[in-house]
Amino acid sequence: MIDIDSHYPLSAQQIAQFRRDGFIKLKDVLSADALAHFGNEITRLTIDLNTEQRPLEERSTYDRAFLQVMNLWEKSPLVGRFVMGQRLARIAAELLEVAGVRLYHDQSLYKEPGGGITPAHADQYYWPLGSDRTVTAWIPLQAVPEEMGPLGFYARSQSVAFGRDLGISDESEEKISANMALHGFEFCTGAFDLGDVSFHLGWTFHKAGSNVSPRPRSVMTIIYMDADQRLAPALNPVQSNDRDQWCPGAREGEVIATRKNPVIWRRA
């Protein structure tokens, strides 16, 4: 069944778990039919629009991690329908404990066979946003066994300041992983079954292993933010770039209500 709009009921315990741990992995969020219907187009566009042509061995650690293409919702009506789905957006709003969410941007992450690790990092390093009410839905388009490099999370790390100034790199992997181990943060990882979707806060540290399988790992992500999220001053060049790319015309201190940032779900 192709259903991306119906309500996925969350328990009070799941919302409390997300508040505590900064992430949650949910079962049976999307059906196999829905993932195939939308996933084939997402994967096709990712391969067609990707500009990385170098062999893996010639790339940086960041570029070996995955091929990435952003805002596919603007490239295809079918993908646009998926990104605007109510089911995932309502989950995001309920986990964030906000009245509604709008889109920051989407991002396809295609880890090729032999693709390297995704180094430890926190997503919000890249985002010029005024609050921590941001969440990424990590949506595998196929099952992700351990050998394909599933995403893993450092539980309760969303309050840690160390490492927030590090982008994805060898340095971030070394320093953040060491700091997490030093302070005893549990690293939670494991396979994703078909239909599983994880959600993590913008400041939750996470990483993924290499894809040592012969198959690509195709994942779609949707980054949601509080519908009342305001633009903050850019703290680094990548935040300036993100502001210009994904929040065109937004003003510092004002709600990010641009044409690229529509409200996807709001409580009636």
TrEMBL record:
The keyword Endoplasmic reticulum does not apply. Keywords: Dioxygenase, Oxidoreductase. This is Phytanoyl-CoA dioxygenase. It comes from Caulobacter henricii. Transmembrane segments: none annotated. Its cofactor is Fe(2+). Pfam families: PhyH. One of its GO terms (molecular function) is 2-oxoglutarate-dependent dioxygenase activity. PANTHER family: ECTOINE DIOXYGENASE, PHYTANOYL-COA DIOXYGENASE DOMAIN CONTAINING 1. Gene3D superfamilies: q2cbj1_9rhob like domain.
